[in-house]
Specification:
Largest sheet: none
Oligomer: single chain
Structural class: mainly alpha
Shape: elongated
Order of helices and strands: HHHH
Number of helices: 4
Helix content: 40-55%
Length: 121
């Protein structure tokens, strides 16, 4: 499978379908393994937010974030922490200009990803 910003090719799709077919034929297709693979693939493609508008998935990340918040994905306390982070970022940007839009400022520690990838905020 391709990674980063590369597109999935027809060969990738054929190979994936062939792998699934082989597992069905061998009666080894495990639904939980399929879910684990899907989660792994989603995390690899979508799991880390890049640096602002230069990230090709920026708009999608924003839309998913809104849905996540709308579904109650954060506690009020954690959401308050993020509001403070954003207010500080905006204050720093409007002040002396020392911070950049992609700079991480006071990010709550539980938000730091455990894996490496395209970038962070």
């Amino acid at each position: 499978m391709t990674t980063d910003n590369a597109r999935v090719t027809v060969a990738d799709c054929v190979n994936a379908a062939s792998d699934i077919h082989a597992e069905v034929e061998a009666n080894t297709l495990d639904p939980s393994a399929i879910e684990d693979r899907a989660v792994e693939a989603c995390r690899a493609l979508f799991g880390l937010v890049g640096n602002g508008q230069d990230d090709g998935l920026w708009v999608l990340h924003r839309d998913v974030t809104r849905q996540f918040l709308g579904a109650g994905g954060l506690t009020a306390d954690e959401l308050t922490e993020w509001v403070a982070v954003q207010r500080r970022r905006e204050s720093d940007l409007s002040g002396d200009g020392s911070a950049t839009s992609g700079e991480t400022i006071g990010v709550p520690s539980e938000s730091v990803p455990e894996t490496s990838g395209r970038g962070l905020m």
